[in-house]
Amino acid sequence: MPTARESLLDSALSALTGLPWSAVRMVDVASAAGVSRQTLYNEFGSKDGLARALARREADVYLRGVDRALGEAAAPTERLAAVAEWTVATARGHPMVRALLTGCWGERLPAPRPAFRTTGSPVPAQRRADAGLPGPSELLAVVRDRAVAALEPGRPKEEADRIAYHCEVALRLALSYIVAPGGQGVEGVGRLVRDAAMRS
After folding, report:
1. Which of 2, 87, 130, 133 is the most buried (most CB within 10 A)?
2. In sequence order, what DSSP letters do the residues of 40-73 get, joined into one string?
3. What is the pLDDT of residues 55-97, one digit of tens each?
């Protein structure tokens, strides 16, 4: 059974399918989750706190998929192609992940404002969701660093540098498919990643 926090996040995400974030009301999110509005405020502190937590959860879902792709028993190029395909597919199916990767939030999504730390608040920091969200370049750096860590252990420095370069290329190709989708579908970006690796 999901926790109150997860139920609230699910309710907020569900509300976004029919309403822009500006029209989503905290009382309706609480009601849909089956909890009191006070519970919602205890968990997130404010609507901005809810927005940050929702965006962070979407980022975590995306990063777990990246880790799964990198953990496959396959050649490094195949794993990078899988990361690129996952990135494009997830951005297409999850508007908030697309916004996190591109920085283009639009009016329907909750563009989380930076958190301001307060002292003496009775609500724990992790519940207020005070930690800031990564911008697109920071999120891509996290993915690149995870890819390099997964693919380079025990390799000579020059090979590790080459892997870091291929990670960067794979992510940049994925971003291009997110912003300007190709006619070949998600598999198209995987083919480009493989081709780029063979040519270098």
Report:
1. 87
2. HHHHHSSHHHHHHHHHHHHHHHHHHHHHHHHTSS
3. 999 999 999 999 999 999 888 899 999 999 999 999 999 999 9
